[in-house]
Every structure is written in C-alpha cells, then in structure tokens.
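For the sake of transparency, this paper describes our internal protein records without simplification. The record that follows is passed on verbatim for readers who wish to inspect the format:
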Amino acid sequence: MTTPDNFDLYEAAVQAPDAAARFLRALHPAATHLCEDFAGSAALSRAWGDLSTSLTATAIELDPQTLDAARSRTHNNPRVTLALEDATATTTPADIIATLNFSICELHTRQQLTAYLTAARNRLNPDGILVLDIYGGSTAYQTGAFDIPFVYNDLEHTYTWKQLAADPISSRVLNAIDFDLASGESIENAFTYDWRLWSPRELIDTLLEAGFTAVEAHDTLGGALDEHNNPLPDPCWKTDEGWRDGAPSLPNDSFVLYLVARTS
C-alpha cells in the first residue's frame, strides 16, 4: 500500500473546503474572485472554483514545495491561479480574502498584524470582505494532545493534534499534527506550527484600525441550509450590536470563531 501524501491527509483530516467555499459565497453572494492567502495546497481555491464556472481564485503561498503540492492538485484548472508570493506583501485584488486554518497566527507581532490587515483592506474590491479564523478559550494554552478519526480512501485513520508548548505571556504556542494510518504506519510531526495566538478582541480592534467598517463573528459555517443546500450565515456577534439575541457567550473550555471584516 502506498503511503498517502501528507497534504492529502491534511485536507481529509483538518479541512472542509467545500463547506468553507459555500460559507464564503453566502457571506458575499456577489463575489466572483477569491484570494486564499497562506493557501497551502489550495483546497479552498479549488472548492471555490468548483462552485461555478463564473468564479475564480488566486492561491497565494510562499513555500515553493507547498505550492508544488497545490499545482499537482489543480490540474491546470483555468479558474485557479497559483502565486508564489508572500501573502503579507501581495497586492492581488479580490472580492473575498480568506485567511483560514489559523494562518493569521503566522504573524507574531502587532506591527506585522496591522500591516497585513491594512494591506488586505486595500486589496479588496468595493464591498469586499476578509474572513479569518481563530481558536481560544480556557484550554488555549494547555499543552497536550487529542486524537480525531477521519476517513481517507475509504479507510479510517487518526490524526493527533498536539500543543507542545504554550506561553500565555507572549501568546506563543507550538503545535504539531501526527497521522496514524490504517496500515499501521505513523507520520510524526507531519506539520508543525509556531504561532502567536491572537485573541478575538485583538483581531477585531486591529481590523477596525486597519479601515474595515464592521466585523462580525460566526461560531459555525452557517447555522442552517437553504433549499439549495447553501449555508445561511448567522453571526453570533457584531461590532455594532453585540451578541445576537439568544446566542450564548463563548464556552469556557474552547472555541473556534470565524471573523468577517466588511468594507461597507
């Protein structure tokens, strides 16, 4: 049996690109061009392009080997452009900029964060949006590991998320992903991350300082589906309204939030 590629395992275990693409389109129905910053293997860009022949995407990735992994998966799809660029320096315009998979944590200083979010605001077309995600809660700085099963090629495998080190003063965390395959093979530290864990409040304040007019928080990729199986986003919090009626505050143990920054 051939050992699966790490990026294939990652996409199957960690990402939900089809759901994320439909969520983005529901957030901005008029959008046609997506920029996937810190794109990795460009799973989201591919899923966005697959939604409609009228949609295009640019996947921006700084690492050449990772971009090669994206290239092998796009199969010269004319709706997906791959760019070997630094997402913090690109000027590529977009209707939607997506910075997902906690990629915003690659920026370790407030200066870097402010510069990136300001540049992202300037890249957006009229009515454009920036979408990013973050995790937090009382467990955010706990070290440890947990296992989650996933299916790839009709076989059940396991991935292990490890938080190896955490410093609540500097807000730095060191994380890694292991894969335990159905074949019995293990891939240790298939991916590693040295992150600055930004709080939702820090991100919201910096987004507003960067020129966005409003920010909303979503705790799911759409709380319901319409008749076409598309998500119906329902923010749990907005800058001008606070918590939605009936929406619980964030749980005490852990949370994942999607922040949507709007230009109008």
Q: What stands out?
A: DSSP finds six helices and 13 strands in the chain. The helical segments are 6-13, 17-27, 43-51, 64-74, 110-123, 200-209. The radius of gyration is 18 Å. The mean pLDDT is 92.
